[in-house]
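The protein record passed on for reference:
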Amino acid sequence: TEGAAVSVYIGDDLLGTGSLSGCDLRYTSPPWTESRPSGDVRWQLSGEAVIALGDACKAEDGWVGTEEIEVIETTDDDVPGGCRYRYDVTGSYGGFVEGSDAE
């Protein structure tokens, strides 16, 4: 089933948007371009995590999951398109969940 629509921030900066279903969060960032001397690389991040929203959520550190960064377009010969970098993420959940009817 589809979860509630969410926006994920790091401080005041939008990391991505996605959905929250129970304790499970899935999100995707907007694509961004890194300009390099040898060409431009366009990236996009996607992730999934369990966040500690209550006793039923098993996220010891508050935020436990994985993220993947993909090269979605490149003009840099040193960075092939389609490359993916996957890593584990943990952290503290310091924010809040706001309902769609909240002001």
User: Anything to note?
Assistant: The first strand starts at residue 4 and ends at 10. Strands lie at 4-10, 13-21, 24-28, 32-36, 39-51, 63-74, 84-91. The two ends are 26 Å apart (CA to CA). The chain is about 0% helix and 55% strand.
